[in-house]
Every structure is written in C-alpha cells, then in structure tokens.
Fold:
Amino acid sequence: MEMTFIMVKPDGVERGLVGNIISRFEQKGLKLRGARLMRIDRSLAEQHYGEHRDKPFFGELVDFITKDVVFAMVWEGPEAVALARSLIGKTNPAEAAPGTIRGDLACDVASNLVHGSDSVESAVREIELFFGKLSTNLAS
Ligand code: CMP
Structure:
C-alpha cells in the first residue's frame, strides 16, 4: 500500500480549512496514518523545498511556510500519491479544476492551501523529514 505526505499550509490552518481538507481525503477512501500540528523552522523548510532552491520565489516560499503552524499528515491507499494530487488540483489555483481543493478554495499560487508529494520517492523523503523513519509508528 502506498503512502503520501500532505501538508495544510499556514493559510489553510489560519482560514480554518483543516477539517474540510481532511474530509475530502477521508471521503475518497484514503486512510489517515499520521498527523502533526507543527511549526516548520527554516532548515526543515529549505530541505523540504530543496528542489526549488534556484527558483525566484524560493525565499518567499520559505518565508510563507515558516510564518505560522502547518498541519502535516500521512495518508495511505492504493496509488495514494496520484489520488491525493488529483484531489488537490493544479499548483496554480487559477488552473485548478472546480471540485479540487485548490480549485474550490484557493486563488493565489503562493497561498495554495496544501502541499502533496509529487512522486512516491518524494513521499518517502518527505514522510521521513516530517515524521521520521517509515517503520516507526506514525501516529505517536
Ligand atoms: P507546493 O505544491 O507546496 O510546491 C512548491 C510551491 O511553490 C507550490 O506549492 C507553490 O505554493 C509555490 N509556488 C509555485 N510557483 C510560485 C510562484 N510563482 N510564486 C510563489 N510561490 C510559488
């Protein structure tokens, strides 16, 4: 069974959308395997978003994700990575289809509410970054 890393960003927590977002994953049939309300420090943010280090918006991205608490989660299911990304919608909310989280609830690419792993390899890396080794009990 596949696992994916999902994080409600500070804008989603601030707007009170954590429950709405969790409901969508539950209704799809994915299983919640771990969850943490936490603050990300700059070091963790720079590791998590390392692939974007050379992008012009990298500084803005790190500032944004570290400015307040996030809600980090691990969800499990068949093809969990692809399923989650289809529920989340395209990165730019202007291009995200209605019915997706970003299509329904967001209107700005920087404040796009939620992050989801883009591949199985990214999911393994991101789950370890935020929750430790996959073999440990994610819920504790
Ligand atoms: P996420 O899925 O968390 O992965 C990288 C993030 O970079 C992405 O969501 C966006 O929130 C952010 N991002 C992408 N393009 C831009 C941009 N042009 N300006 C600011 N942030 C961006």
Notes: The radius of gyration is 14 Å. The chain has one domain: 2-38+68-131. The chain is about 40% helix and 20% strand.
